[in-house]
Structure formats: C-alpha cells, structure tokens
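Hi,

I'm pasting everything inline rather than attaching a file, because the server keeps stripping attachments. The sequence lines come first, and each chain or strand is labelled.
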Amino acid sequence: MTPVEQAAALLSEGGLVAFPTETVYGLGADATDDAAVARIYAAKARPRFNPLILHVADAEAARFWPGPLTLVLPRRDNAKISSLALAGLDTVALRVPGHTLAQSILRAVARPIAAPSANRSGLISPTTADHVAADLGDAVDLIVDGGACPVGVESTIVDLTVEPARLLRPGGVTAADIETAIRGIVVDDGSDAEPKAPGRLARHYAPSTRLRLDAEAVVGNEALLAFGPDPLTGAVATANLSSTGDLNEAAANLFAMLHDLDASGAAAIATMPIPDTGLGAAINDRLRRAAAS
Ligand code: TXA
Ligand code: MG
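And the predicted assembly:
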C-alpha cells in the first residue's frame, strides 16, 4: 500500500493520521465519526470548546481554493458532521488544501476530514513530520511525511456568516489579496473579549522558552530570531528567517526556527522586528501570541 492508501484506509476506520498541507501538518480524523474526532481532542489536549476545520478535496467557484484559506459558513441542519468537531456552533469552517499529498488523501478517503494543526494545544505548529513525531508521538496512527510545508503559517480564516465578512485569523493568503475579492471585509484586531474564532487564545504557538519581541539588541544569554541582512550580534544561537528580507521565506521558516531555538537552551528568544505587510501580518500575529503570558 502507498502512504496515501494507508492514510485513507486508516482514516475510514476511525484512525488518526497526520498529513502535510501547504500551511502546517494537520492531525486528521473522519469528521463524521464522533469517536475518531474525540481522539483528536485527546491527542492534542485541546479544549472541547475549540472547533475543528473540515478539509475537503474540492469546492467549485471558490477563488482562493485550493489554498491556505478557511471559510466559516452556515452549517446545514442535516450535515453529518460530528457535533464535537463543531464544538456546538451553527457554523462550519471549511478548507480545500492545495498540497498534493493532502489532495490525494482527501480524494482517496472521499469524506470530510477534521484536522487541526498536528501539535499539542497551545504549542508551536508543526511544519515537518519530525515536529509531529516529537510532539504527538504514539498518539498518532500514521504520519505521512511530505517534507517541509511550503507556506509555513496556518490558513487565513474568513467568516462569511456575518455582513460585512470578517477576517478572524491572518494567514497564508494575505489581507491585501482577500480585500480585492471581498470588499469591505473587517479585520479582527483580536481585542474582542470573546473572540469569534474560539481558538484565538492570547497565548498560542508558544515555545517553552520566553520570547521577547522587536528586540533592538541581544541581552544576556538570548537566542536570536533574526530577519533581514543585518542580524543583531551577540546571541548564543541565531536563526535568520530571511537574510534577504523575503516575507514568504520567513513564514516558511518561522515554526521550524522557533522549534530549533527553543531547543538551544537559551534563556530567552529575542525576535527582530518584522514588517506587518503581506505574510508579515500572519508572522507577527503568531509571534505576539507566542510571546503572550
Ligand atoms: O492551515 C490550517 O488552517 C491548519 C491546517 C492543518 O489546515 N489547521 C489549523 O487548525 O490551523 P487549528 O485547529 O490549529 O486552527 C483552527 C482555528 C481555531 O482557532 C478554531 O477555533 C477556528 O479555526 N475555527 C474552527 N471552526 C470555526 C468556526 N466554525 N468559526 C470560527 N472559527 C472556527
Ligand atoms: Mg493550531
């Protein structure tokens, strides 16, 4: 059996399969199977109030699909989706990933697959199969290895159940691109007491080492997450998101470099300022949450 066939067989029997998407690795289970979905929440230690994105192989007439975009839509009353996966909401979050392996698995299994990022709740998202194995290990029945995820930050989430539409999470499709397709979209600044995406917690994507944002110098025994051609000096370990200042390259490197610097034994990780344009908005969102206490 090929890894794709094995993945599809396991998923249709209620198994948990980690698989690559262009954003991050997902932890997949049959979205119509309550017991399988319950295993996702257990493996991630994820709060039950936090619903899951449903992944499907295709959808007609959606401009950004396949790709790193998730749309929140009204739920059909007779939908066969596990209510656990939806955390009791009357909306569903849908995504058509573009990654070849994700596409093949979704086509082979031919049912919606609920898949959060394949990390324990609150920790750094995985962009390699090794990250998944290190974080979730035996809790997963199979990890399909597709190498590093090319985009590297999670999908952009847009809520289409409200008027005007609302951007709930900056991600792999930039706000500028979304604005050309959905005029008047409101960008959620995250200040709501009750965030519209239940999983948008202040602290998330977090390494165990403390993060210090917008550093202008390295202090003490800090590691450095650098950006651009002039990295600060004096760090005990340095990783440069992009020495040419390319935000797409920086996004693709973000989580792997955070994983590496977290393992460096430094007292803290200092991060250099990153422009808030293009994928920079998603990168800064993740860094702010990683730094929150
Ligand atoms: O790129 C991605 O989106 C990755 C890959 C694996 O597809 N998945 C991902 O899933 O990032 P997760 O579970 O780590 O983040 C999904 C976010 C959570 O903040 C959750 O609360 C929100 O989507 N969400 C899910 N269903 C929702 C709904 N009906 N309304 C609003 N937010 C929803
Ligand atoms: Mg996640």
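Residues 21, 23-24, 26, 50-53, 68, 70, 72, 89, 91-93, 95, 115-117, 154-155, 157, 168, 196-200 surround threonylcarbamoyladenylate (ligand 1) (CB under 6 Å).

If the labels don't parse on your end, tell me and I'll reformat.
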